[in-house]
Amino acid sequence: MKNSSSSSIKKRLRLPLYAAGGAVVGFLGASGVSKLPSDLNWTLSVYYDYDLLFAILAALVVVMTVWNIFSLSRTPSVPPMEDDAYGDSDSLISPAERSLGKAMILSGFSVILTFTWAALALSLYASNRTMPNSPELFNLLNFVASCISIIIVVVVQTLTVKRYNRYYPERTLDLNSRNMKKDHFEKLDEGEKWIVYRAAYRSFQMMNVLLGVGMVSMVLYSMLFTFAPFPIVMLSVIWIANIGIYYRETYRASNQ
């Protein structure tokens, strides 16, 4: 029992130690490296500031949305009969359900990318509109395009969710509900809940790794370019909240 407890403590401390070690290695590696030239362009630009970045985001949104529509078009509007749905396949998921699941995933990714595009466009427009020689027209059109893409993506997501509800009437999703995810989770059976638990724990583990990588990246950025405390503080807050919520839920479950 003692060895098990010691091993558990070591596993919990492993990630913070890795992050600290990465920060130390980065500091030692960068201590002998001079600052990069101040005129080095990192804005992903061709004609205007960050135009290449927004072009990449727009292309990703278009690809995701078209792929979502294509996957949705391969899903019959009416759920097929069980014999027709599976055919001779031994899979537990029919081709129509597989296409619908892919459409749901792509819909979620499209929404995230679109709101990221809009947030960046709004930030750039608000920060540069008072600067002289700022490409205000480009920034404004970029923001308008992101808003239009939000409308399109939300409409496609609504159609996708409606198709999902038609296939699974016993566990429908209500986009207008404040507790949509919680209500949907309560409608799952025990096997499906176990899958969600396992996926959530793996997501929690990966999030800790990504937060550690992000922390080290921001430290290196501060050493090579300029001191940027806000991203480091935000990553720390998110990291603490992520681990704190995990332990809170574990404590609640153990006391039930």
From TrEMBL:
Keywords: Membrane, Transmembrane, Transmembrane helix
Segments traversing the membrane: 12-32, 52-70, 103-125, 137-161, 206-224, 230-247
Coiled coil: none
InterPro entries named in the record: DUF3169
Protein origin, superkingdom: Bacteria
Name this protein carries in UniProt: DUF3169 family protein
UniProt keyword Transmembrane helix, yes or no: yes
